[in-house]
Amino acid sequence: MSVDLDDTDRAILRLLAGDATLGAAQVGRAVGLTQSAAWRRIRRLTDAGVIAGRRIVVNHAALGFGVTVFLGVRLAAKGRIDLEAFERAVTAIPEVQTVQHVLGRFDYRLRIVARDIPDFERILRRRIMTLPGVGQVEANVVLSEERRPGPLA
Amino acid sequence: MLDDTDRRILRHLLADPQADNATLAGRAGVTVATLWRRLDRLRERGVLTGIEARIDWRALGYEVQVSLRFTLDKTEPRAFDAFTTAARVVPEVIEIQTFLGSVDIRLSVVARDMAHWQQIWRDRILALPHVTDIEPLMLVATIKDTAELAL
C-alpha cells in the first residue's frame, strides 16, 4: 500500500528532508498552513512510514575520518548458510556503515568509513578479507557525495 | 577541538537519531541545557551539518532501487560536469557520488516498478552524456544502514 501525496505533502517532505528539526509552526508558515494543519500532515506522513526517522549528517573530515570507500563484494560460494554467515559477520564490523544485498556483478555493497588509507587497508585486510565466503572485492574511494530531493518535485 | 563530552554526545546521537533531547542528554551524562549548548557549538563549527528526515521511498510506492555505476569518457574534459548536471535533472535520482577508482560516478535511482524502471533506463539513463560503461546493481535488501562512527 503506498501513500498518495498532494503538492503540499511533497513540499513538507522537501522541507523536512532538508531539516528534520523544523517544527509544525515553521513548516506551516513555509507551505501556507496553520500550525495544527501542518502538524496533522506531518503526523500522517510519519504514521504511514513515509518519514522513516532522522538522518544525522556530520562532517567526517572534522571528526578525523578522511576516507569513505564503497566496496563491492562477490561471495566465493553461495548458499543460504553462506549468506547468513557473511551478513552476520559483516554487520558486526563497526567501520561498515551500510550493507546492501544486491543483484548484479556483486552480491553485496558496503560503505566503509576509515580514518585514512592505511586505516582502510587495515580494515580491508583484517576484517573484510577474513569474512566467511568472501570472494572478489572492488574498492572505490568516494570523492564527493550529494543527496537529491528525489521524485518530490 | 572536540572533547570527550562532544564525542559522547555525537556517539549517542549517531547511534539513535530518533532519541529526544532528554533521552540523549541522559545517555551522554549531561543536562539538557548542556546538550543544547554542545549541539549548537558542533553546528557552528561545522561538525554537525544536518539533521534530515529520512524518506522511505518504498512507502511512497517506489518498489525498485538500483545502484548504477558509470565509467565516463576521460578524453572529454567536461565529462564529469556535464554528466552530473544532466543526472541532477532526473527526478528519480536520489544520490550522486563521484569516485577515485575503476568506477567514476554512481547514481542511486528509484522506480515504482520494473516497467517504470525500464522507462527511466531507456529515456533518462541511456541519454546521460559521455558514458563509456554502465553497470546496474539491483537492491534486494538493506541489511545495515547507520551513520555511526568509531568515535
Account of the 3D structure:
The complex is a heterodimer of chains A (153) and B (151). Chain A has 153 residues and is an alpha+beta fold. Chain A has 2 domains: 7-47, Orthogonal Bundle (Arc Repressor Mutant, subunit A); 61-141, Alpha-Beta Plaits (2-Layer Sandwich). Chain A has 5 helices and 5 strands; from the N terminus they run αααββαββαβ. In chain A, strands 3-4-2-5 form a 4-stranded antiparallel beta sheet. The model of chain A has no long low-confidence stretch (mean pLDDT 94). Chain B is α+β, with helices and mostly antiparallel strands and 151 residues long. Chain B has helices spanning 4-15, 21-28, 32-44, 79-88, 114-125, and strands spanning 48-55, 64-72, 93-100, 105-111, 131-145. In chain B, 36% of the residues lie in helices and 31% in strands. At the A-B interface, helix 1, strand 1, helix 4, strand 3 and strand 5 of A face helix 1, strand 1, strand 3 and strand 5 of B.
The CATH fourth-level homologous superfamily of the largest domain in chain B = Lrp/AsnC effector binding domain/regulation of amino acid metabolism (RAM) domain
Helix and strand pattern of chain B: HHHEEHEEHE
Q: At CATH's second level, what is the architecture of the largest domain in chain B?
A: 2-Layer Sandwich
Largest sheet of chain B, described in full? 4 strands, antiparallel
Oligomeric assembly: heterodimer
CATH level-1 class of the largest domain in chain B: Alpha Beta
Question: Portion of residues in helices of chain B?
Answer: 25-40%
Order of helices and strands of chain A: HHHEEHEEHE
Fourth-tier CATH superfamily name of the largest domain in chain A: Lrp/AsnC effector binding domain/regulation of amino acid metabolism (RAM) domain
* Count of spatially separate domains of chain B: 2
Provide the helix percentage of chain A.
25-40%
Give the N-to-C terminal Cα separation of chain A.
21 Å
Mean pLDDT across every amino acid position of chain A: 94
Please state how the strands of the largest beta sheet of chain B are arranged side by side.
3-4-2-5
